[in-house]
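Below is a filled-in request sheet from our internal design queue. Each sheet records the structural input a requester submitted and the sequence that came back. We keep these sheets so that new team members can see what a complete request looks like end to end.

REQUESTER: design group, bay 2
PRIORITY: normal
MODE: inverse folding
CHAIN LENGTH: 425
BACKBONE (tokenized):
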């Protein structure tokens, strides 16, 4: 009888060590950029009360309609695996009394998300996002800070020249209804030219008509009225100031009248960073203002904004451009080579001393000969091989071999850690 083998669930995958290098690279750059801008890390639970997402993401969204991993636990609580980070963070803001902290509260995260999406290239059911939220700031400069922070992350990752910032304003609850009315009338007049889902969207969530991907709907979208022309004076002025400040700090953008978020508590600025020219699988990150969300969750009216970037997708983009140098490989400074049982004991002691000093060190413990172990040191690109043969084990010495030049010197074992540390500086 053959034994059953197991596979990862559809839409998930193992992140193997070679890939982990890219995750570390992205996350370390993301963290250092956002920390410098004053954001502090938050991690929320992997699952939350289902209603948090129903209310916080919205009933008419794809996420809530089709994509949530929802289950009942043994106490009959209805829970959902986190599909996005904003609703949990706003929940945490209120639950932990962050309204009394100095405002704005600036938080960042790198967390896995879960969506029952149709798996394909760049789309998974478990995927990671890096993101940030800035809660308690209504000024256009906050928009500029968030957008330029995202852009700085991409610049530091080495992909700044390959991406474009897509920008739009979707107004506020005062000016948007007039636009929605106009859009709905326009779609009614063009009913015969649109796809079945759009007929539905026109009833439930008209703003989303604009990001339909069906080729049939594209000409209708092209000629649709644009929200920019319906902004109230306050939203118009806010958007003008965002654009002006972006110009001042040389962040280029494209105004994209089709970029929308479908829910009432989203307001004003929305943006995405795209890699390449069309939106489909190429959006690396999306964000914007959600000035109404804190109130939806029972807090007092609080302006807020943020963005979320797709870690997996950003990494895939970096990988598809081999000219982008990923300088975050795990390094090995020292490889300890030994021969004989006494030398093996010395080897372990020596490695422990290096690890105490946080020097990256590895050793060959099996029975391979010296040349076999040296070739491992070579493969790992170790800077130094430390060789302990039978003679050295007896003398309590070690040969330091500089791998690049092949130069060798003998050192007492108790002095070798400080010597190597000095050379590594
Ligand atoms: P969203 O929260 O839908 O605005 O997504 C923000 C970013 O997360 C997107 O721009 C993508 O880069 C990434 N993303 C969203 N859904 C998925 C998915 N199913 N698999 C991988 N990445 C995703």
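RETURNED SEQUENCE:
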């Amino acid at each position: 009888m053959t034994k059953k083998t197991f596979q990862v669930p559809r839409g998930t995958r193992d992140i193997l060590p070679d890939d982990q290098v890219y995750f570390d690279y992205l996350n370390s750059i993301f963290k250092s950029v956002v920390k410098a801008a004053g954001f502090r890390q938050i991690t929320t639970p992997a699952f939350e009360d289902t209603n948090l997402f129903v209310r916080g993401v919205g009933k008419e969204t794809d996420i809530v309609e089709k994509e949530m991993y929802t289950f009942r636990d043994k106490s009959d609580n209805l829970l959902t695996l986190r599909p996005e980070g904003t609703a949990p963070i706003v929940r945490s803001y209120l639950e932990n009394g962050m309204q009394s902290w100095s405002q704005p509260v600036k938080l960042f995260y790198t967390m896995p998300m879960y969506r029952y999406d149709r798996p394909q290239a760049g789309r998974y059911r478990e995927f990671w996002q890096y993101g940030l939220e800035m809660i308690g700031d209504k000024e256009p400069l906050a928009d500029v800070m968030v957008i330029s922070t995202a852009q700085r992350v991409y610049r530091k990752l080495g992909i700044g020249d390959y991406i474009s910032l897509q920008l739009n304003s979707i107004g506020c609850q005062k000016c948007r209804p007039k636009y929605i009315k106009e859009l709905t009338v326009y779609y009614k007049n063009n009913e015969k030219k649109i796809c079945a889902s759009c007929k539905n969207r026109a009833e439930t969530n008209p703003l989303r008509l604009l990001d339909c991907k069906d080729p049939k709907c594209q000409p209708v979208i092209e000629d649709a009225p644009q929200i920019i022309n319906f902004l109230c004076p306050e939203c118009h002025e806010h958007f003008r100031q965002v654009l002006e400040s972006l110009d001042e700090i040389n962040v280029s953008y494209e105004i994209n009248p089709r970029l929308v978020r479908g829910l009432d508590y989203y307001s004003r600025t929305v943006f995405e960073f795209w890699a390449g020219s069309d939106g489909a699988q190429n959006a690396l990150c999306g964000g914007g203002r959600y000035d109404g969300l804190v109130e939806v969750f029972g807090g007092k009216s609080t302006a807020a904004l943020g963005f979320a970037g797709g870690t997996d997708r950003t990494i895939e983009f970096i990988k598809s451009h081999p000219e982008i140098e990923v300088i975050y490989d795990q390094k090995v400074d020292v490889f300890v080579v030994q021969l004989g049982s006494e030398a093996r004991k010395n080897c372990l002691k020596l490695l422990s001393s290096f690890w105490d000093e946080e020097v990256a060190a590895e050793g060959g413990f099996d029975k391979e000969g010296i040349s076999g172990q040296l070739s491992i040191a070579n493969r790992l690109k170790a800077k130094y091989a430390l060789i302990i043969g039978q003679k050295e084990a007896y003398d309590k010495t070690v040969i330091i071999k500089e791998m690049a030049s092949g130069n060798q010197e003998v050192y007492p074992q108790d002095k070798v850690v400080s010597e190597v540390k000095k050379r590594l500086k």
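SHEET NOTES:
- The first strand starts at residue 40 and ends at 41.
- The chain has a mean pLDDT of 92.
FILED BY: M.R.
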